[in-house]
Design goal:
11 helices, binds zinc ion, 12 strands, single chain, alpha/beta, globular, 5-stranded mixed β-sheet, Nucleotidyltransferase, domain 5
């Protein structure tokens, strides 16, 4: 049996660590996930990641796969040269400062590349997913927080101190609502899942809706993004208004980026991307209205295609063209 080439990636998330092996054509050979148990802290999480890394390499050896490096994606800004987490991550306490790269290199005795998780998602979507073949792209993930990645001429733009692409903390209103980062009017303060839900709840307090009561089983306090989209699909006025407002806010933020970078494609990932084609077309219309005409002529706005696998797949690609 001849050895086949394969890529190995680990995607550290706030709730689970996803990992796997895949072929150069993008087909998945093996994948699995384990709970992050972020509340236990950074040290046990690093032990978990080390064990997963060894498990992956063992699996590759069993299948006679040739893996030349390991790639890891993590929340927070990462020094791509050293593999150290340099930015704070609200969902994993104490993770800032963790030496993921050197710890794993020592343990595995092989090259290890570590990057921010939105960067890895962007790499995967560009290679095998929604933006395959594109050269200039912006990737935005919207969930608890808003993350961004910028690719120009096929290259990730990490920035001078690996903190580029922080789209979520671009302000769209200097007098706007408070953001978790301590500033005002950030895109995240308007368009994170929680911000969207809070706007809907506020509106529902003033205009109670029978449909929302039914959808949430009377638990409006526990309203989710998914339920909000369901209400909109069933024609609820408040849900539609809140989502139209969200599309406008997001559209303004993205229009600023479009004017700066003139991308070919914008990939939208995270819970909001699952809201259906209607939200995406509203967003697309908002961006086209807000941005400079010549920059949006050929612009495509698409939903991420690789779902939960994008993170570990993009991580696996990190070592390409690196020395
Ligand atoms: Zn902010």
């Amino acid at each position: 049996m001849s050895t086949k080439r394969a890529f190995a990636g680990i995607d550290i998330g706030g709730t689970s660590v996803k990992f796997g092996l895949f072929s150069p054509d993008g087909s998945i050979i093996y994948k699995e996930q384990k709970p992050t148990l972020a509340e236990k802290g950074a040290v046990p999480l690093m032990h978990l990641v080390s064990n997963i890394a060894e498990q992956l390499m063992y699996h590759a050896a069993e299948d006679e796969l040739e893996v030349r490096w390991l790639g890891v994606g993590t929340p927070g800004a990462v020094n791509f040269k050293t593999g150290r987490v340099i930015g704070a991550t609200p969902n994993i306490a104490g993770w800032q400062g963790t030496e993921i790269g050197s710890t794993l290199k020592e343990r595995l005795n092989m090259p290890v590349w570590v990057d921010n998780d939105v960067n890895t998602v962007a790499l995967a979507e560009l290679r095998y997913g929604a933006a395959s073949g594109a050269l200039t792209a912006i990737c935005v993930t919207i969930g608890t927080g808003i993350g961004g990645a910028v690719i120009i001429d096929g290259q990730l733009q990490r920035g001078h101190s690996y903190s580029g692409g922080e789209i979520g903390h671009m302000s769209i209103n200097f007098e706007g609502p408070d953001c978790k980062c301590g500033r005002k009017g950030c895109l995240e303060a308007y368009c994170s899942s929680q911000a969207i839900i809070n706007r809907a709840k506020k509106s529902l307090e003033q205009n109670p809706s029978q449909l929302f009561n039914e959808i949430t089983g009377g638990l409006i306090d526990k309203l989710t993004i998914k339920q909000l989209f369901t209400a909109a699909k069933k024609g609820d006025k408040i849900a539609s208004e809140v989502l139209a407002e969200t599309a406008l806010y997001l559209g303004i933020g993205l229009a600023n980026l479009v004017n700066l970078l003139n991308p070919e494609i914008i990939i939208i990932g995270g819970g909001i991307a699952d809201g259906g084609p209607e939200f995406l077309s509203k967003l697309s219309a908002a961006v086209k209205e807000q941005a400079f005409g010549s920059a949006v002529k050929e612009l495509k706005i698409v939903k991420a295609a690789l779902g939960n696998d994008a993170g570990f797949i993009g991580a696996g690609l990190l070592g390409e063209n690196q020395h």
